[in-house]
Amino acid sequence: MELNSLHELYVDELKDLYSAENQLLKALPRMAKAASHPELKRAFTLHERQTRGQIARLERIFRGLGEKPGGKKCHGMEGLIEEGKELIKEKPQPDVLDAGLIGKAQHVEHYEIAGYGTVRTYARLLGREQDAQLLQQTLDEEGETDKLLTALAENSINIEAEQANGEEEEEARPRRRSAAKKGGRKAARKR
Q: How far apart (Å, rounded) are the C-alpha atoms in residues 39 and 37?
């Protein structure tokens, strides 16, 4: 698509967001399944429902523009989702995985916040105030999701991940000491 006007750029960015939301809709159930913390599972499930509503809002905007929503793939979201898949495949300790999932989810939220803020501004410049209101509603939801994830991370999940890390280090210390002693004895025998 050749972009020769702000209107064409607006439609192109909306298509990118539509693709991003649809990709996220497929990824959120995987993230909820991988999470072990019940509140994080709930946050992902809630955001899945919100994402369905956000897609419906975008479809409403496309109808008003007389445009079809498909035809573009959001490579940015594809990359962010792939990073989340890689984290899950690494199979970290559950509390650490939850902390990592929050980080990956916040990357997604910040990406969406940037995108929705941009198209909301374009809508206003183009005199499409109803579109701007719908986009602002989604922008508000994305901001609330980001705040919820931050609260979960700061109030429990990151703390639990750090405590799990400390416990693993405590368990590993005696083994390291014993290995060091064995290595020291072997060196002493060789002398």
A: 6
Cα separations in angstroms, 108 against 2, 33, 152, 164, 183: 27, 18, 16, 26, 48
Q: 148-175, pLDDT tens digit by residue?
A: 999 999 998 998 889 876 555 455 445 4
CB 107 within 8 A of CB 87: no
% the chain with pLDDT above 70: 85
> Is 125 in contact with 6 (CB distance < 8 Å)?
yes
Q: Which domains does the chain have, with CATH numbers?
A: 6-158 (1.20.1260.10)
Mean pLDDT of the chain: 89
How far is it, in rounded angstroms, from Cα 51 to Cα 57?
Answer: 10
pTM for this predicted structure: 0.83
Segment (H or E) for 92: none
**Residue 24: its H or E element:** helix 6-34
